From TrEMBL:
MF annotations from Gene Ontology: electron transfer activity; FMN binding
Domain of life where this protein originates: Bacteria
Name of the protein: Flavodoxin
Listed SUPFAM superfamilies: Flavoproteins
Domain called Flavodoxin-like: residue spans: 3-169
Lineage, broadest ranks: Bacteria, Bacillati, Actinomycetota, Actinomycetes, Micrococcales
InterPro entries: Flavodoxin/NO_synth, Flavodoxin_CS, Flavoprotein-like_sf
Amino acid sequence: MKALVVFESMFGSTHELANAIASGLRETCDVDVVRADAVDAIAVDAADLLVVGAPTHAHTLSTEASRHDAATMTSDADGDLDLEEPVMTQGLREWFDSLEHLAKPFAAFDTRSDMPRLLTGASSKRIERELRKKGAVSVLQPESFLVTRFAGLKDGEAERGRAWGEQVALAFRTTMKR
Ligand SMILES: Cc1cc2nc3c(=O)[nH]c(=O)nc-3n(C[C@H](O)[C@H](O)[C@H](O)COP(=O)(O)O)c2cc1C
């Protein structure tokens, strides 16, 4: 079974999490990890399962404007944020816009601030909605992983990501048997 992890990331936390999730999936699957601005249609075609994640910006998926805001934050005098290089100028939103139909099993994840969900929102809900509109089928509930303030996975979140990756692979198998 081949899984493709597609991620968006401005400060690197969602990238780190995507790698942790991939290591869990690798227990039972072949896995590639790819940025949202470099997704290749052939790789998507070849994948049996998509695992798709992004940071939460303004309660949902990033936009050009929110990515610009993120980039601005790194130049604040007291900022200790670093941008992923090369900086992502396109995110999942743009990738979804480019897709016509995508009838694949998937699971969605996000990173978000460590505050009550009602206050933060969660981009994984939007990812789920957009992929379902394209004909994709969710194998597991969307999952959020927490960062400390703006970036940096909280302690234990990478391990939880790895375990979630294993869970996604199991859920995929169960879905396929039905
Ligand atoms: C412009 C901007 C808006 C944000 N809005 C939210 C938000 O509405 N809810 C939230 O939980 N986190 C919010 N955050 C924090 C991000 O979720 C956090 O920076 C992200 O999870 C880090 O992932 P990354 O390192 O992969 O970019 C925001 C961050 C930025 C830069």
